[in-house]
Amino acid sequence: MVKNVKESIQKAKVLIDSLPYMQEFRHKTIVIKYGGHAMVDEHLKRQFALDVILLKQVGINPVIVHGGGPQINKLLDRLGIQPSYVEGMRVTDGETMDVVEMVLVGKVNKEIVGLINHCGGKAVGLSGRDGDLVCARKLKVSSKKKVEELGDAPPELIDLGQVGEVTHINPGVLESLSRNDFIPVIAPVGVGDEGQAFNINADLVAGAIAGKLSAEKLILLTDVPGVNDKNGQLITTLPAGDLAELIDDGTVEGGMIPKVRCCEDALRQGVAKTYIVDGRVEHSILLEMFTPEGVGTEIF
Fold first, then answer.
1. Alpha-carbon distances of 82 from 72, 76, 79, rounded to whole Å
2. Residue 141, exposed/middle/buried by CB under 10 A (0-12, 13-18, 19+)?
């Protein structure tokens, strides 16, 4: 009995320690990019759903933007369609775009919504095409050829098909859902001027939505602990003004570059703080939100 009482007291202390953070972020918007291993592991998927429900329960407004690259590749493989990448970006022709939209909007999005609702939350699934939420245009990418190879010629433009970039966010549908206590879950498919669909990087969509909503936090869930220094040690806090130098000297490289740039853009648009967090850690969102140490890298 004594042991049970001590355990209960410890749980109560955890709640009391979390109280100042709950008060600070009540009625604030938190945008979460959901991706990586946290979207695949069944246990982590359930923990994510419960974390999001808890945020909503204590008066915080979570908005979720999800990815789905592995799931898209799985269906492409079943259909005998070979995925193609240029400069690390998926080439998205009309046939591939149909698969992208089918998987992101019709399968992955509904699975996330269903899990949150099954665990006791109130979630609604959207794509960027719903209510013209995410307006987009075709992304233009130049080849990264060396200067000596180009000579006097202009950079070569690469056609990625229906790959887009965000031009505008119409937040009305999100604001309406939040007022009615729903959790929006958004697939990163944008809409063009002529109603065509665009495949957009989920990090970029999350950053743009966070900026438009003047979110208190943007949290990017990844499969790494955060941003590391040259010695492989986690950088817990990182001023945005230091990012350019860290990219130039190779400290930040590869797939981490678009993530830190997404954070930089979000801060520029009015987001208070941004975080790159290891989604493989159980309850990583709650640890980031409700503890003084947090987890991952805070970019401010």
1. 11, 7, 9
2. middle
Instruction: Specify whether 33 is catalytic.
Output: yes
For the chain, the structural domain boundaries read 51-299
- The verdict on pTM exceeding 0.85 is yes
Q: Which residues of the chain have pLDDT under 70?
A: 1-2, 87-88, 143-155
pLDDT of amino acid 112: 98
Let me know if 280 is exposed, middle or buried by CB neighbors in 10 A (0-12, 13-18, 19+). Answer: middle
Give the position of tokens 């817990």.
Answer: 236
Task: Give me the DSSP letters along 149-194.
Answer: HHTTSPPPEE--BSBEEEEEE-THHHHHHHHTT-EEEEE-EEE-TT
Distance CA 19, CA 169 (A): 33
Q: Is 255 a catalytic residue?
A: no
Looking at residue 255, its pLDDT comes to 83
**Strand duo 141-142 + 157-158: pairing:** antiparallel
Contact 60, 51 (CB under 8 A): no
* Catalytic member of 28, 45, 69, 132: 69
Catalytic (active site) residue 69: yes
Coil/strand/helix, residue 71: helix
What pLDDT, on the 0 to 100 scale, is given for residue 276? Answer: 97
CATH number of the structural domain 51-299: 3.40.1160.10
Instruction: At 152, give phi and psi (nearest 5°).
Output: -90, -5
Q: Are strands 189-191 and 61-66 parallel, antiparallel or unpaired?
A: unpaired
> Residues 227, 234: contact at Cβ < 8 Å?
yes
pLDDT at 146: 47
145 a catalytic residue: no
Amino acid 155: pLDDT: 65
Q: Could you confirm whether 203 is annotated as catalytic?
A: yes
Q: 148 CB contacts (<8 Å, ≥6 apart)?
A: none
